[in-house]
Amino acid sequence: MQSKFEIIPTGTATAILPWGDKKAKPITIIGTKKIRDSIETGSLQQAINTRSAPGVSDLVINPDVHQGYGAPIGCVLVSPTHICPGPVGVDIKCSMSLIQFDLPEDFINEKRIRRELITAITERIPTGVGTGQRSVKKSRRISTELAVQAVVEGASVSVCQKIGIPVHWAQRCEDPSHRSHDGTIEGLKKRLDFLRHEVFENLDEKLDQLGSYGGGNHFGECEVIKLAGLEKDRKTAKVFGLKDSAVAFFSHCGSRGFGNILATNQFKLFQHSFTKHRIPFPANDRHLVYAPLGSSEADDYLDDMALAANFATVNHLLINALVLEAFQEVVPGVQGELVYLISHNIARKEMLGNREVWVHRKGATRAYPAHHPALSNTPFFKFGHPVLLPGDPISGSVVMVADAGAEKSCFSVNHGAGRQIGRRAAFRELDQLRVDNLFKENDILTNCRKYPRDEAPEAYKDFSEVVKSVEQAGLAHTIARLKARFVIKDSTGADD
User: Fold this and answer.
1) Which of 7, 42, 43, 253 has the maximal Cβ count within 10 Å?
2) Domain that residue 386 falls in
């Protein structure tokens, strides 16, 4: 069936997918031949459907691409004129963060220590669908008033101080704070007040989920850092703050139920407007709605996206503060510093070439190389910023840095390995005993009695081939590898 799509190679790990008439700019595909051959027909069709929406100037498919709702997961959409909720998704600003401790690798070799750390973390940070702070006994209680301030201001000095987050960690966030469509905090205050009192009866309940992972593919993972061997890469690692053989903790989560309810509501509002005004859905797909920039629909969406993004930022920082607290309970005196926080489900106003555009990333991560103007006045201007890519616990994960070639992908890379087996198929096809034994054989502990089969390493693509695709395409290269020692995961169900 895939043969109906003409994928034309342009390099060892790049290709184009023509669509429409000959004048239409083709879709860019990042991936080795092995990756390209594995892309399912449905993902390619979704990419073409998404590219056909009004105002879209560029679309990129990353090597982790797989089917989503409307737009495929693992894509980058660029528009100078429109905002599109589909190529952002419902888990707004789902992100990765990495904290590093002043602990050597040897310290966590002992299983007893790792078990104590797992207990200390799970006593502070809840996992699972719909769970919030009050479901675990040592969580950091956040009042509704403070939570409201957090989603309006993001990681401001005041918010960090009140919650107990090191203030300087905000400087290690890709975007510590997001503003309304008019660039103000006041705009977000007004929008949130309207949503809390006029639209949703239970929005305050979602604020209670600050400091939690959720379910699905979200996780916390204790790592050992292994630096790349090249001297130039070690210099970059030093700028990032990475140390060879140090213990670190990797987190994957987003805006939880708060972001989900805002995003889902926006999809309904857009769809209602399309139906009311008899606007056809692109490719007859209700998830591919859009709005012209400057319209009331676009403004409201941008405000809701900013509120959810601020929630996600503070959620990550609070999780990292609680992880540090847990480590300090087990290892008194240990210190930890945030390496970086980077997102992969969001739309941002950026400059591409000499043009101001909105870059939508759905399961895609921003990748600015050295001397990119957007990195001016940051510690990363001369080197590029950290790019955090999760693989799976067995294959490991990587920290990368963008190369000049990232321009061809609209300064973006994939957000991880990407699924190769759907959740239902994974439950049908994968053997539970084999999954659990794989962790035992690799001496990786988990908090799960049975590791969820739909999140098993075999459910995901070959991470080494995914990384090879990024490097051979000239988008980025590896600075450090992360080796998992234990995993915090929810086994009850997915909410991603």
Assistant:
1) 253
2) 95-488
